Model the fold of this input.
Amino acid sequence: MNRAGRISATAVFLGIATLLGSCANRDATTTGSLPDDYRTRHPIVIGEAEKTIDIPIATGDQGLTRGQSEVVAGFAAEYMRTSKGIIRIIIPQGAINSGAAAAAASDTRRLLVRMGVQKNHILQSSYAAADYGQAAPIRLAYVAITAQAGPCGEWPADIALNTVENRNYYNFGCASQSNLAAQIANPNDLLGPRRMTPADVQQRATGIDRYRSATTELRDTP
Done:
């Protein structure tokens, strides 16, 4: 092979190596930019979120049924535990069941007051019910501090290209974090420990008496 041929072959090999190197670097950069710990990618954060529930109302109803009253009572109990703000009763406007919904809203207001909600914390409003058909629901809503993670279902990168370093894909672990956040009854527990309650003096004295009165029988073993 002459000198010109050797130079051409060397240039071709260098060009191929450069292309392969650039591809490898691009994959490594893309993969390395994503944290491998799903708790870092999808942290559980404390923030406010709207809590809602829809109560479907039939056209012929003249108020809340017993089952609906139980659902409203449960929602009110959760409101009393987690919020001190406004709770809204939102009724359909322009629907066939608007009259029945108004009667159910009155029952709902009285039930909320019986559950301990202050009257000045109850706000009633309406919404256009054209898209809800004949059984347009009344909606209860309030805002509370909640533990939450996500949103899930985001795919910022092609997972087919994210296999060089065997790292987790971006959406991995998001559903688990969201489910864990939904199970936290008191989000304030994530902010810090609660204060200690006073010691039970009577229980402590009982334990000390049992300790003092305890005897151990020693037996000689053959």
In short: Strands lie at 45-56, 87-93, 122-128, 137-148.
